[in-house]
Amino acid sequence: MRTHHTILAITSIMAAASVTSASARTDFTKGDFYIMTHAWPVLGAALARIDPITGVTQVIWEVDDLPLNAQLTYDPWRDRIVTMPDTNSDLFRLVDAAGTVTTLANPWTHAFTLATWAPTGDGRIYMVTNGLGYFGYVDSSNAGHDLLDTDGVTPFFFTYGATNRENLIYDEGTNSLFLVHFGAATEVTKVQLSNDGTQLAAPMVTVTFDAFPPTADEPMGLSAGPNGTLFIKIDTNSNADGLRMFTVDPVTLQFAPYAFIGHPFVAGNTAGTYNSTYDFAIALDSFNDVIRSYVESGAVQAGTIFATGVSRGGSGELARIITIGDTINIPASPADFSGPFGPGFPDGCVDAFDLGALLGAWCSSAGDPDPPGDVDPPCEGCISPNFALVDISGAGNAPDGCVDAFDLGALLAEWCSVAGGNPCGTCFP
Hints:
Number of strands: 27
CATH class of the largest domain: Mainly Beta
CATH topology of the largest domain: Neuraminidase
Oligomer: single chain
Radius of gyration: 23 Å
Largest sheet: 5 strands, antiparallel
Strand content: 25-35%
Number of helices: 4
Number of domains: 2
CATH architecture of the largest domain: 6 Propeller
Distance between the termini: 22 Å
């Protein structure tokens, strides 16, 4: 578990953040939170940005039609938040960072209401229908397709207990879709895709995890998690302390606790997400009308009040929260070894932070004054504390005991910095 939770010290000081009147943003920034709810104070239905450091909120869209089961995600390929306030209309709403809304008609033909959807980052958006779970997708040309079963002919579907609590995410490392849905416990279905994404590469696999035995688990958040895992937030509708945040390994399908949560009227602790840029999670406490932040821990925690004035709901408010950069699970790059908190705390971006850490540990053997035949290891005398961290490449693409041009080349090959902006801006390696 990473330990750079100095961000939480900052947020605890600035916990009383309120709605800001700042001018509208024109770009999405990795690590920013967005919340969509039908119970925003005064306005009612709204989509709002939450600053990941200060907790300050800013409404970008006053939603005109928002049923309780509305879904929310971010597509880096279209650089838009994707939602469908009316799931019966098959009309996606694409929202830019300034709150400008355009529409995308869903061309995938099916006979059921959509339950949830997930982008892959290359133009595809996969979708699942309610109940009789048919899978389909829109491609980068906005053409609709059925997802085919392993035979390459039959449209793939399976029946699950649809309750408007479904969540879908694409995991790039396994080239799989993960559907988290409601049952007697949390059910996670892995759908491994073929290389071209048109059909299943293997039969689906479903695993079950009873995170909160006293009541049924209602999954209300799914995102990329720490260390390549998937992060799941559940709503238990119970005022008892218990496990409400956990992770699942996309390869082994093993579950692990993230946060045990307990505070007054905790039954209102509903939607949530993890933030890989700043290494903490948040959840909506709809009963107390605040957002709380959480760190990975085995102890019960109330959470730090992170943002206020975000709700006027009750214990059953079905909001959705996402983190920009974590709506797709992308494996970490070995060249991402630094971020705003310094070496050892990657931020999901290969940028100037990483370059600075590499140059700070530079100890190339070029010009080594030792005589020919010297058997000392390359870079003799290199004692930078970050030496092992940034030695990521060599002549054979493996660490070679030297921080040199091989490592610099490996870093620059994945470079995605945006000059003058926050780390990476909308760049997602």
